[in-house]
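Long-time lurker, first post. I've been practising inverse folding by hand and with some scripts of my own, and I keep getting stuck on stretches where the structure tokens seem ambiguous. Below is the full token string for one chain I'm working on. Before anyone asks, I'm not after the true native sequence, just a reasonable design that respects the backbone. If someone could post their per-position residues I'd love to compare against what I wrote down in my notebook.
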């Protein structure tokens, strides 16, 4: 039924949903039906009000805002941060910090290179004003400051990284004459002043290696003290010395034995392993780029260095060397190896007899001062024993200590045991004829064994170098896969094997100055190839033999070159050959050849002695500084040539 002429009033906000057909009253013609949009808005408002249970007159809820998406670069930043955290923990606990240490090394070297680029030389970007020549004293002081701060950076990095980096610093220290004076002084800290590990970490290593036992149980009755107070059994928590892979603690046991406890630093084996892996990668890359026989050499070096981290292996080496010394009548009283206590030794802990003595680098200063030289030390006597010891190891025993730097050699005075002692008269104290000097050899982790053939070949190599026998020298070089032995001869003698005349030297220098970068690179590769020989023929043990010879030369130069090192090593080489085969090689040498060989040997020694006494006469009449000084001048000339090579390669003068 339709209702006409009727008015209806609706509450405000009421949403109509009725159609005209559903209306039961007549709607006034003035009524306007809401539009579709208005109906939708009212429906939403009423639904919202009904769901919340609030009054119809409440204000409507604002629309929900949609979440904004992160920009792509925020996603990238979060991923990078997560990867950095994962890499940090993986590097720390799995790789032993190898990634960080490598980055630290490259970063330090880059900083040093940038410093020299900015401030060194006339072509430098910021320091060229110091090279105008107006004030040489100011220029020298400026360069000293530059060298000092970069030496401090490098040494600090080597100490931080430890392990092989410390050994690298020790090797650089032994050839410090190639570097400026500031570097020489800083590198001297590398022998026993590496960064120390906290007692908390050292204690964990000791307890772990002894099945969780406390230190008081491993070393019964000891008290833990910072420094020896002289009161009963003690164990010092502060190390007496810190080296590349371990640090040394002093202890006095209940039976009054004084012992040296060498504790391997945590993570060292893992760090060295990754360092060697990186070294192998670089060796493989070098072999691929240059064709040099570096791959097998990298594997051999890695094997030898990893053995050094096993202290049980070091204990065996020390005991074997002690037996060899005891069997030699010339060395048994002059050189000593500390006793190893096997019951207190593990893979990471080595306990030996404690020796009171002075390191070789301290002896130089003592001998120079009469007031401090209470031991009556003569540097010539010290070096004579050092050279005889390592020459005997190389040419007679074939069992060679490969790390004889000054920190691993002690000098002490002790009572002469008997009237039939093997002490030479020169080693007996001039102030007290009941005491004599003795060397103590430490750190037996790195040894190399020589086959009898290689031992004899190396002796022939030195005999040929000293006597100038080019034919014999080339025979040895051919057996080692070398085209020429000159490179190894010069490395062993630390001077040119065949001295060229001044004209040839000038021509050679002029030709090298005209080389292009590509030609210089190829020349250096060819020279390195001549030095390393052919793959499969080159005796890899020579790398460590050369290290031994280099360190002995460095010790001699460090002490002021008190002896003719080349003559002595050559003499022991020829003596070993005579003892091995007095009738010649395999008894096939004719008597004429034997006579020629003996005459050549005698003639060589006579020439060397003549040079020595001629130098002594010149010194006596005031025309020279003596044989030792001339030897030092020869070694300094070799160092000067090495400095020139450094300047040629890197553009940095090291004078």
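-- Answer (accepted) --
I ran through it position by position. Result:
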């Amino acid at each position: 039924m339709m209702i006409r002429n009727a008015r209806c009033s609706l509450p405000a906000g009421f949403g109509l949903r009725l159609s005209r057909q559903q209306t039961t009253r007549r709607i006034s013609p003035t009524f306007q039906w809401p539009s579709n949009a208005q109906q939708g808005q009212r429906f939403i408002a009423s639904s919202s009000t009904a769901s919340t249970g609030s009054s119809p007159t409440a204000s409507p809820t604002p629309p929900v805002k949609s979440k904004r998406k992160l920009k792509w670069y925020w996603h990238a930043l979060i991923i990078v941060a997560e990867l950095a955290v994962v890499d940090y923990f993986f590097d720390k606990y799995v790789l032993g910090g190898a990634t960080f240490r490598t980055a630290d090394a490259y970063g330090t070297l880059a900083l040093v290179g940038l410093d020299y680029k900015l401030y060194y030389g006339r072509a430098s970007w910021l320091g060229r004003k110091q090279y105008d020549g107006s004030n040489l004293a100011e220029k020298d002081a400026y360069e000293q400051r530059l060298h000092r701060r970069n030496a401090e950076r490098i040494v600090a990095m080597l100490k931080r990284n430890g392990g092989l980096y410390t050994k690298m610093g020790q090797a650089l220290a032994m050839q410090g004459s190639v570097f400026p004076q500031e570097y020489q002084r800083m590198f001297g800290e590398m022998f026993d002043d590496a960064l120390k590990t906290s007692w908390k970490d050292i204690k964990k290593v000791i307890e772990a290696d002894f099945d969780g036992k406390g230190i008081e149980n491993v070393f019964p009755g000891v008290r833990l003290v910072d420094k020896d107070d002289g009161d009963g059994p003690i164990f010092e928590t502060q190390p007496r010395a810190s080296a590349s892979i371990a640090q040394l603690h002093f202890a006095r046991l209940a039976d009054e034995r004084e012992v040296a406890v060498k504790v391997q630093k945590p993570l060292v084996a893992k760090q060295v392993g990754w360092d060697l892996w990186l070294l192998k990668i670089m060796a493989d890359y070098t072999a691929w780029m240059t064709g040099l026989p570096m791959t097998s050499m990298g594997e051999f070096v890695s094997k030898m260095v990893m053995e050094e981290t096993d202290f049980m292996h070091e204990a065996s080496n020390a005991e074997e060397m002690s037996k060899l010394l005891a069997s030699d009548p010339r060395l048994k009283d002059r050189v000593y190896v500390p006793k190893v206590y096997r019951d207190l030794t593990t893979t990471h802990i080595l306990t030996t007899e404690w020796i009171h003595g002075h390191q070789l680098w301290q002896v130089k200063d003592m001998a120079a001062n009469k007031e401090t030289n209470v031991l009556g030390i003569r540097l010539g006597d010290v070096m004579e024993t050092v050279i005889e010891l390592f020459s005997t190891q190389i040419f007679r025993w074939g069992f060679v200590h490969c790390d004889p730097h000054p920190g691993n050699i002690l000098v002490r005075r002790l009572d002469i045991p008997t009237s039939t002692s093997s002490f030479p008269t020169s080693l007996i104290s001039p102030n007290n004829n009941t005491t004599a000097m003795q060397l103590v050899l430490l750190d037996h982790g790195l040894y190399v064994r020589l086959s009898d053939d290689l031992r004899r070949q190396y002796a022939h190599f030195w005999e040929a170098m000293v006597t100038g026998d080019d034919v014999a020298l080339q025979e040895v070089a051919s057996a080692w896969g070398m085209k020429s032995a000159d490179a190894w001869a010069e490395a062993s003698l630390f001077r040119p094997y065949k001295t060229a005349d001044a004209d040839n030297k000038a021509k050679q220098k002029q030709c090298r100055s005209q080389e292009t970068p590509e030609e210089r690179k190829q020349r250096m590769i060819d020279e390195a190839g001549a030095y390393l020989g052919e793959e499969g023929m080159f005796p890899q043990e020579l790398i460590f033999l050369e290290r031994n010879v280099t360190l002995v030369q460095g010790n001699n130069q460090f002490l002021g070159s008190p002896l003719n090192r080349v003559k002595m090593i050559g003499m022991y080489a020829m003596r070993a050959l005579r003892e091995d085969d007095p009738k010649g090689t395999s008894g096939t040498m004719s008597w004429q050849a034997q006579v020629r060989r003996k005459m050549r040997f005698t003639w060589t020694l006579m020439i060397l002695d003549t040079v020595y006494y001629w130098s002594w006469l010149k010194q006596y009449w005031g025309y020279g500084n003596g044989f030792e000084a001339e030897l030092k001048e020869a070694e300094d000339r070799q160092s000067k040539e090495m400095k020139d090579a450094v300047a040629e390669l890197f553009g940095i003068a090291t004078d």
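A couple of notes from the structure itself: The chain has a mean pLDDT of 74. The CA atoms of residues 15 and 576 lie 119 Å apart. Happy to go over any region you disagree with.
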